[in-house]
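Margin note: ligand = threonylcarbamoyladenylate.
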Amino acid sequence: MNTRTLPASDPQSLAEAAACLAAGGLVAVPTETVYGLAADAANGEAVARIFEAKGRPRFNPLISHVAATEDAQALVTLDAAALALAERFWPGPLTIVAPARPDARVHPLVSGGLPTLAVRMPQGVARDLIARLGRPLAAPSANRSGRVSPTTAEHVSRSLGGRIDLILDGGPTAFGLESTVIALEPEAVRLLRPGAISADDLAQASGLPVLRPEPGAALQSPGQMRSHYAPQGRVRLEAGHVEPGELLITFGRYRPEGVADAAEIVDLSPAGDLREAAANLFAVLNEADRTGIERIAVAPIPRQGLGEAINDRLRRAAAPRD
Ligand code: TXA
Ligand code: MG
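Resulting structure:
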């Protein structure tokens, strides 16, 4: 298949993308987090093609993206606490997992057989495209399953070129890290995947405690596999020294011992800004894949705020692969 890339800023591109989706095609779309691989969520064949193009296990459910809160409410039941969070953070990088409505017009493949659905309202071009199509879009990150998420159109093209119909190029994404996935529990917010909105921000906005996944209950969110976001090279964390030939990924001007022997040094944020570091992380890992670097050492990165999501992705990038 010949994959075309079109500029997202051109209204004609949006029209073509909407037509392609309406015909059951696959379109990579920039969101404020990462590029998504979108299909009409009601079209089972199109959704099945997402799983094929990514090589994604079928049990791992997809997020339904909507253009308005009412459209989310046509898919899931949002309680008062969920609605308040939607009000505060949508459009934006918050995904809410909630009970699916029996009449939700989403193909069962999207939820992977679960009684719940994940919904989010993205910013910008993605939202315009959903509004134009007039239906929710199912969209995982636009990368081969288990690999690093794409933050530019070029990353998408390297990973999925020839396997999808269209790529809308909207430049580098703003957050560079996936949405935060939550579910509401009685009097608490359950964090299913740390992401671009920090747990502190959720606690503050909801007035509720934020609970981490219980140990052992790893499959509360089926996508939270141990090895994920993995670059081709081997990743070593909390590096206090550099071994000769390693790519060093560091933060806030920290320079570990042996830094002179590094093949290359990338500082995710010399100013020590976690937001900037999050925006750069996947771009750096994707670049490492492009250049074929074999060993990557990552210096310690603070754990507070967005650092939780950054460390989560790094842990999975470094996890043993089967
Ligand atoms: O920022 C993002 O969220 C990006 C952009 C494209 O929106 N999308 C994304 O999708 O990261 P994906 O498929 O790579 O990750 C979705 C996560 C997975 O961990 C999946 O298991 C979880 O959401 N998820 C989806 N539906 C769920 C459900 N019903 N219950 C629990 N977890 C769910
Ligand atoms: Mg993903």
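Residues 274-291 form the longest helix (18 residues).
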